Amino acid sequence: LGMVWRRLFPKQRELERQAEQARTLGLQRQLATSDSERRRVVDELTGTLAEKVGLAHELAEMTVRSFRRFAARFPSEAIAQEVLDGTFKSRRVDRCVFLVVDAAGSTRATQAHIEARRATGETVDESAGFGAVYNGFMTWASEIIETHGGWPFAFEGDSVKGMWGFNPRADRREAALNAWLAAQELIAGVAQWPPAPAPQRFGARIGIATGAADFNLVRTGDRSFMSPNAPALNTAAHLEKEKCHWAGGEVAMDGVTAGLLGEDELDSHIRDIARTREMLDSVEIEIVRVRLG
Fold first, then answer.
1. Which of left, alpha, beta for 149 (phi over 0: left; psi -120 to 50: alpha)?
2. How far apart, in whole angstroms, are the C-alpha atoms of residue 54 and residue 134?
3. Strand 203-220 relative to strand 250-254, pairing
4. DSSP letter (8 states) at residue 197
5. What is the signed CA dihedral for 256, 258, 264, 266, rounded to 10 degrees?
């Protein structure tokens, strides 16, 4: 039989070798295809993982930014978290320090700047011009208040209101000192604001007063915010409007704030000082006017 087989298939061994090579080649192709598929799947999974990590990072950053925007409505991030958790309760804090700063002469200065630009043939949107100045001023003033540990909580016209000392365990003198340092920076910096190329020159009037404040949560629709209810806030606003020089450069504070600061702190930073006692809302208070600008 073997002889017959060899006669019929004289090249059997060659055929067997070729068959083996074909099988080997087929296996190699399968392995190559499997390896390529494996690499494709790994690359796809790696890309998907990187994309998910990127999305998770972006979502985390968006969450942080969103929370900080929300927290800006409150004296601290801890209070904002209490509001989110539904655990905040109204509270009263003794001897908070309030500051009210007004951009003195800003309307006149901005209008003159707009008219000067128009005189050169430039087309100027007056509403946009005023908006840019006031928005920029309020942002700048708010950043200074925050830099000195305060909470800028209200914006009205061309004025900004800030507060220090929400934490009842905080040092009251430190709160008054931070407000005083912010006032000095505001007075000194407003003359150079906004920055070049075309600054509008105006001053700043500042009122500072210290007293108890009630903090309540206010809701309007789905929005929550907080605004302090404090006679001292009204006093600070009155001092700014009625007791400072109209062109700015002055800080008027009540006697409580001046007492917290002490004579040495006031005397070391001022050009002029005046003390009076006046009636305000049927109450006699001491008023200290400090000339800085």
1. left
2. 38
3. parallel
4. T
5. 170
Choose among 91, 99, 98: nearest CA to 217.
91
Give the integer Cα–Cα distance in Å for 60 and 79: 21
* pTM score above 0.70: yes
Task: Give 168's Cβ-side CA count (13 Å radius).
Answer: 8
SS3 208: strand
Taking the alpha carbons at both ends of the chain, their separation in whole angstroms is 122
Query: Which residue type is seen at 240?
Result: E
User: Are 145 and 99 spatial neighbours (Cβ–Cβ below 8 Å)?
Assistant: yes
Long-range CB contacts for residues 79-88, cutoff 8 Å, separation at least 24: 79/166, 79/226, 83/217, 83/224, 83/226, 88/217
Name the residue with tokens 């003159």.
112
Task: Report percent pLDDT > 90 for the chain.
Answer: 28
Distances (CA, A) of 110 to 66, 157, 185: 33, 14, 22
Helix, strand and coil content of the chain, in percent to the nearest 5, comes to 55, 25, 20
State how far the Cα of 282 lies from the Cα of 238, in Å rounded to an integer: 14
The string of pLDDT tens digits covering residues 86-132 is 898 899 999 999 999 998 877 777 777 778 778 888 887 877 777 77
**Structure tokens belonging to residue 70:** 């929300």
Beta carbons of 96 and 166 less than 8 angstroms apart: yes
C-alpha to C-alpha distance for 57 and 49, rounded to whole angstroms: 12
Are 266 and 290 in contact by the 8 Å Cβ rule? The answer is yes
